[in-house]
Amino acid sequence: MASDRDQQTPWGSDPYDPAAPDAGPTGPGSNPAPEAPDAAASGAATSTAGPTRRSVLRWGLGGVIALAAIGTASYGSISSASAGRDLRSALTIIAPAAAGGGWDTVAREMQQAQRAEGIVNNTQVVNMPGAGGTIALGNLSVLEGQPGNLMVGGTGQLAATIKYGSAATYADVNPLAITVEEYDVVVVPGDSEFRTLGQLMDAWKADPRSIPWTGGGSFDQLVIAELAMAAGIDPQTMIYVNSDGGGESAAALMNGTAAAAASGYPDSIDQIESGRLRALALVAKERPAGIDLPTTVEQGYDVTLANWRLLVAPGGITDEDRAGLLEIIEETIATPQWREAITRYHWNENVVTGQELTDFLEREKQRIGELYKELGL
Q: Which of 11, 42, 64, 343 is deepest in the core (most CB within 10 A)?
């Protein structure tokens, strides 16, 4: 699960953990141990709150440091692109969070696939954490016309731009492709009285404050809010228990601090298979291959928010460079290495590009904005 301080708060005062939306697959197989940080990754800025005066100041300093990190890591790619538009000489992939989370996993799996298959001669990963991915997005937005850089983004980053009123948005850069998505699962303790999603929802509706939920961070919070709305429950009446990572959230369930949780399926599978947690529903429209769990939609709740992973280029690049980057992405996701990663992390492949992507991002922006309004945030 996404990380957050372990405390019980009303929905409207959930302290957002900027790393949370991307606290992706850490379940079976988990992330390969990150390599030694690539070029100047240690210069990445960090933040644990929204755009307060401190974070604005940090953006001023951290942004300069982070841009220097990108400049160092992608010197070859930028200079090559300027000289001959050869995007395959060098490429910098920006992970807008610390090593070990979902965005970082996507970046490093792409790096490994490109290296193994010779798609790009030198692919480097730069970690740039802070403010739910908006620090990295702000940095990418000023790399105008420099195609030797890609950033991994996704649902949580989009949510952070809305929640924090980020100056930089996806409108300032070039979203290229969604590659995969990860689903949440609704879980309860293994010895819970609730054996179906219907039973849990009936008890929740009867007394909303009797069922404290856990998960952590924006994405899981939004999933639970959408579930509440689908059941006719006011999200602002709920109790939410913040947990620092999947281990603590599972502990919150098993020690009785929380009664139910929304969590990334890859984070929960070990606990589900051991019987310590019971899965009641996969948050999806339909069951993907390899996951035999009833979905929320199957059980009468139209809750389908997915944790998708997006690849984004700077603004101001040429149509030729955009096409070249898309070609690199397409070749990367067709490699055996990437296919194996999809299986290992229990991702669902869902490739979206072009106008379909533009329309999808606009719908998601509206959807997440409405959920935040319902949460009173």
A: 11
